[in-house]
Amino acid sequence: RLAPVIAPSLLSADFARLGEEAVALDRAGADWLHVDVMDGRFVPNITIGPLVVQALRPHTARVLDCHLMIEEPERYVEAFADAGADIITVHLEACRHLHRNLQQIRDLKRKSGGRVLAGVSLNPHTPASALVHVLDLCDLVLVMSVNPGFGGQQFIPAVRPKIRELRAMITAAGLPTRIEVDGGVTVDTIADIAADGADAFVSGTGVLRSRQFGRDYAAAIAALRG
Ligand code: DX5
Ligand code: ZN
User: Fold this and answer.
1) What is the distance between the alpha carbons of residues 89 and 99, in angstroms, rounded to a whole number?
2) What is the CA(156)–ligand 2 centre distance, in A?
3) ipTM
């Protein structure tokens, strides 16, 4: 099993000070920085594009984990790779040719060298079985535990059996695929999700807008590590 990863989501950051927020999260011990890209079509909200990723890139050496909640992601993956994305995750529901889209991401080269890691995200209603024939092309499976579009929503417990099913599929296939969970991940939900087999944890409000820890991102991240 891979070491658990905490990936705070910049969606809950102060967008007028994104660079400083990235530096603060980096210093606070974030493993990855999760970047929520929304197009106002696949999801009802609009956020960040490749230009913002490019602007963030010089501020941190951490993995930029780009979650593309957009239609026709194949039109933009190259721009995100050029901007400095380390991981590019597309939504299964937004891909008519998912196999081709994963190949496309895996073939991208990063400017800093090495390949871009490819992820697939599943909406809460999408079954784990939808990935059987592409699992070997997924460096990461991102399980949405809220309906994508907004931070600060309640964790949907019905996705827990899906995490367990995915972990069983990955283990049976002998793959190194990570399972990342996104949405409503807090100190109250993380232990259950980890027990189900997830090993990467996105947290937006849980880190950046925590009632318990205020602006102390380091304390919030440490609490998630348990
Ligand atoms: C939701 C985004 C999440 C969001 C999670 O569409 O994909 O990454 O930032 O926010 P919290 O942790 O507040 O549920
Ligand atoms: Zn996300």
Assistant:
1) 13
2) 15
3) 0.99
Q: Is 112 annotated as a binding residue?
A: no
pLDDT tens for each residue of 89-125: 999 999 999 999 999 999 999 888 899 999 999 999 9
The arrangement of secondary structure in 5-225, i.e. its CATH architecture, is Alpha-Beta Barrel (3.20)
Tell me the average confidence (pLDDT) per consecutive run of 10 residues in the chain, 226 residues long.
Answer: 95 98 98 98 98 98 98 98 98 98 96 93 98 98 98 98 98 98 98 98 98 96 97
Extents of the domains making up the chain: 5-225
128 lines ligand 1 (CB under 6 A): no
Q: Is 183 in the pocket of ligand 1 (CB under 6 A)?
A: yes
CA distance linking residue 84 with residue 65, whole number of Å: 10
Q: Is 114 annotated as a binding residue?
A: no
Query: Quick one: residue 89, left, alpha or beta (phi over 0 = left, psi -120 to 50 = alpha)?
Result: beta
Q: How far is the CA of 159 from the centre of ligand 1 (A)?
A: 15
- Collect all residues with Cβ–Cβ distance below 8 Å to 140 and sequence separation of at least 6: 87, 89, 117, 118, 119, 120, 177, 178, 179, 180, 200
Atom of ligand 1 nearest to the CA of 67: 7
